[in-house]
Amino acid sequence: MNGLPPLSSHATGRISADRLASLLGQWHRGGPRSGGHDLADALATRVRDGRLPPGTRLPSERELAGALGVSRTMIGAALERLRDAGLVASRQGSGSWTAAPPGVRHPGTGLPDGAGLIDLTRASPGAADGLLPAFEAAQRALREALHDETYDDLGIMPLRERLAARYTARGLPTAPSEIMITNGAHHGFALALRLLAGPGDRVLVEQPGYPHAFDAVTAARGHLVPVPVDPFAASGWDIDGIAATLRQTSPRLAYLMADFHNPTGRRMAAEDRERLGAVLAATRTHTVVDESAVELDLGGAGDGNGVPDGIGYGYGAGDGAGDGCRTEGAPPPLAAFAPRWTITVGSPAKTHWGGLRIGWIRASEELIGRLGAVRASLDLGSPLFEQLWLAGLLTDPMPCPGPRRRALRAQRDALAGAVRTECPDWSFRTPEGGVNLWCRLPEPIGTRLAGAARQHGVLLTPGARFGVQDGLERWLRLPFTQPPDRLREAVRRIAAARAGLTGAP
User: Fold this and answer.
1) Does some domain include residue 151?
2) What pLDDT, on a 0 to 100 scale, did the predictor assign at position 1?
3) N or C: which terminal CB in the chain sees fewer CB atoms within 10 Å?
4) What share of the chain is helix, strand, coil (3-state, %, to 5)?
């Protein structure tokens, strides 16, 4: 990325001068002579925390100088500092673009290489039990499939039949013709975005929300329209507010996570789904519903009355003991309330293994046909072996492996207990499901804390990365996808990093 510019605007995206100025906020802290340093620091922070992803094409010096009300000399000096730091690359005639921060995968921590480094930037569990037997069965099935002369660009029929049966069992009647196999849930969203939204179109998203969805919209030159998700409210989604936003902004597409929201872990109630489905149909808003974590129902939701500082929610009576993931009493899919306007995407990345890069789309047969036509310009289908592998995994009647659920619950408990002990003035709601603890900090130090934690051997993604607008510096996402002892050690180090910033004990 440091040597060559992005291949196309569709792959990376360009940020406008006005949008970048808004993203920088109050960047000028020092006197008149420190302006270039302040601007460079502010830009570097947005690159490191992911709000300016690698490959983002920057506005010209003239455009940025006009938007910020400063001289081009100051802009040039700031960009020169970022080039020296490896955070910006430039080429004459091609402009400038952001680059991957040096050492982003293994930053300097003062520790020996690889020793003691705890990476909490990835919310992806390790491989679940049962992968190898299904792998061996897929190998045998592949030998038979080698004699076939054709392939199905929607995916192999056994896999589509099993996925359709699961949706039907959840209350969304589905035929195999309403399923398309993709290369992951995010791939499904990218296809829907390409079909339904173009440059300049508005896309409604949740805040906090999934950063890579934001990046995809930005890369497509769309405009993000955020609606809030409240981690502590009785109902995390303000349906009336969403309805008003839909009517006022008329977005071409919406992107929602009703089960379980990333990063808050909230699940939308059935009555809210019904109301929202009616609004989506009334406003004729196509909506991508990301169900990547739908099967990770861990039980133990909070009561929704808010959390006083220093207290995390405990577990309710319906804690869901048993070997399989809880499905009894779960609300129907959001698509059941607006089937014509909803595109549901999913994948086995959280339930089985992140390395199994395959997923699916569930939509009306008409939309599947249109999505297939769009996909033909990009690729001609998903790898056969991975489809056979996933089809074997889905022969298990349980939605996700029981050991996976038990491990995640134990890790969630360990992380929540460590935060209560080491950071008693942080607040959070015990997530109903998913893989993240979304913590509210008493000070707006999320990005600074992530930087300080690096020096203690912990990699963090600050809350600001999950926002379209500023205002999430008081938040921090902590995934509970690692063993309990490792999570406790990570929180101990984070508390030490925070003490160095604020003097908190």
Assistant:
1) no
2) 36
3) C
4) 40, 15, 45
DSSP assignment of 143-158, as one string? HHHTT-----TT--HH
pLDDT digits (tens, 9 = 90+) for 60-102: 888 888 888 899 889 888 888 888 888 888 887 778 888 876 5
* Of the ranges 119-123, 271-275, 445-449, 454-458, the best mean pLDDT one: 271-275
Per the structure, the count of domains in the chain is 3
Per the structure, the complete domain to which residue 330 belongs is given by 158-302+325-393
Residue 108 covered by a domain: no
- Say whether both 348 and 223 belong to one domain: yes
Distance from chain centroid for Cα 440: 18
Last residue of a domain, one of 364, 393, 422: 393
* Pair of tokens at residue 352: 């089985």
Q: Kindly report, residue by residue over 287-323, the tens digit of the pLDDT.
A: 999 999 999 999 754 433 333 333 333 322 233 334 4
Domain end: 343, 375, 393, which one? 393
Residue 163 sits in the same domain as residue 242 = yes
Token pair, residue 456, equals 């203690």
| Separation CA 202–CA 193 (nearest Å) | 11
C-alpha–C-alpha distance, residues 280 and 289, integer Å: 12
Structural domain includes residue 140: no
CA distances from 325 to 194, 292, 349, 351, 433 (A): 34, 14, 16, 10, 10
At residue 68's C-alpha, the angle toward residues 81 and 205, to 5°, is 95
- Cβ neighbors of 57 (< 8 A, separation 6 or more) are 5, 6, 9, 12, 13, 14, 15, 95, 96, 97
Tokens of 370: 């249109």
Structural domain contains residue 278: yes
Name residue, tokens 């809350």: 463
Pairing state between β 88-91 and 95-98: antiparallel
Q: What are phi and psi of 167, to 5 degrees?
A: -65, -40
User: Crossing angle for the helix pair 72-84 and 35-48, nearest 10 degrees?
Assistant: 50
Q: Are 452 and 340 members of one domain?
A: no
**In this structure, are residues 455 and 110 in contact, taking their beta carbons and an 8 Å threshold?**
yes
Q: How far apart are CA 122 and CA 495, in angstroms?
A: 20
Instruction: Please check whether residues 267 and 373 belong to one and the same domain.
Output: yes
Establish how many alpha carbons lie within 13 A of residue 61's alpha carbon, considering only the half-sphere containing its beta carbon: 15
Q: Note whether 214 and 90 are same-domain residues.
A: no
Alpha carbon distance, N-terminus to C-terminus of the chain: 41
Q: What is the CATH number of the domain that holds 188?
A: 3.40.640.10
Indicate the Cα dihedral angle 487, 465, 122, 266, nearest 10°.
Answer: 70
Weakest mean pLDDT among 80-84, 168-172, 365-369: 80-84
Q: What are phi and psi of 227, to 5 degrees?
A: -125, 145
- Residue 53 DSSP SS3: coil
